[in-house]
Amino acid sequence: MKIRDILAKGTPTLSFEVFPPKTEDKFESVEKAAAQIAKLKPAFMSVTYGAGGGTSQYTVDIAAHIQERYQVTPLAHLTCVSSSREKVHQVLAQLKERKIENVLALRGDIPADGKVEKDYRYAAQLIREIKEEDLCIGAACYPEGHVESENKSEDILHLKEKVDAGCDFITTQMFFDNNILYNFLYRIREKGITVPVIAGIMPVTNKAQIKRICQMSGTYLPSRFKAVVDRFGDDPKAMKQAGIAYATEQIIDLLANGVNAVHVYSMNKPDVAERIWDSLSDIL
Ligand code: FAD
């Protein structure tokens, strides 16, 4: 099923994310985690794409597995900046062959050595190129602005280019203060971006994760969140419980305020997905 049709129903949706293994020997454990999450029957599940494209086959295989065995709609991520046009179209052909109808079209991060392929510079180019295919296309957005952007206004103008290029929905980078999302929604609607926005929520379940998040994306950590980490960060079980509770509260607040589509960065952790799902069973 196409995600745009799922979102068009206007009912609350919860979706989860898995990432593919880096090596063949880990494939089975990732597949097992994906299967456990799929058994919850979320609205859809996304499968990320290794930055260089080297693990693209795993993305396709896991996405197909979710759909064929569990009848859960998959969303396959696809990055372009480190790939040739030929490679991108090879992956698209594989997705078509496995009847995967949803693609999250991304640029991908610029590698540390700055070496990229020459065919694509921005995600908008990829979206423009594939919009004639029979696909539902999503794109990424950044309520706090993308790290490379001069400012949020410029980032929103580039987001508009992606939407005008033909994307059907946008999924946000994680945020820990819902007011950041509400403000972002106001600003993008004002600029004429009217496609559905899926709010991305990251349950932070260990201290190391927070350091990585801040280094990679510069995400703002509200004092309420910092207090949780200060108090529970050194107790892994307590941190996990508190992190799941924090994410669940964020989701409830979003749903209560009319943000119907929420995507959980569940990071191959079925127990985290299950605990969030269970806490929302009557709400959804
Ligand atoms: P773009 O939309 O191309 O934007 C990149 C930067 O360029 C932004 O600063 C933008 O403002 C600027 N820009 C855009 N167009 C122009 C223009 N015409 N002129 C000047 N500047 C411009 N990475 C992975 O490797 N694999 C994944 O599976 C993956 N999944 C993700 C899922 C989500 C929901 C999100 C939010 C991110 C994901 N990422 C993933 C990370 C993503 O690849 C990086 O954030 C990357 O740096 C930007 O990708 P993008 O598609 O947003 O790029």
Summarize the structure.
The chain is of the alpha/beta class and 284 residues long. It has helices at residues 3-8, 27-38, 56-70, 85-97, 123-130, 152-165, 178-190, 207-217, 223-232, 236-256, 270-279, and strands at 13-18, 45-47, 74-79, 102-106, 136-141, 169-172, 197-201, 261-264.
Can you walk me through this structure?
With 284 residues, this protein is an alpha/beta fold. Helix content is 47%, strand content 14%. An 8-stranded parallel barrel has the order 1-2-3-4-5-6-7-8, surrounded by 6 helices. α2 runs parallel beside α3 and α9 packs antiparallel against α10. The model has no long low-confidence stretch (mean pLDDT 96). Bound molecules: flavin-adenine dinucleotide. The site of flavin-adenine dinucleotide has 24 residues, from β3, β4, α5 and α6. Flavin-adenine dinucleotide (FAD) binds next to β3, β4, α5 and α6.
Number of helices: 11
Element-level helix/strand string: HEHEHEHEHEHEHEHHHEH
Instruction: Tell me the strand order in the biggest sheet.
Output: 1-2-3-4-5-6-7-8
How much of the sequence lies in strands comes to: 5-15%
Overall pLDDT confidence: 96
Structure classification? alpha/beta
Radius of gyration: 18 Å
| Helix coverage percent | 40-55%
* Shape estimate: globular
**Any low-confidence stretches, pLDDT <50, length ≥5?**
none
Count of DSSP E strands?
8
Which ligands are bound? flavin-adenine dinucleotide
Give the termini distance in whole angstroms. Answer: 20 Å
Largest sheet: 8 strands, parallel, barrel
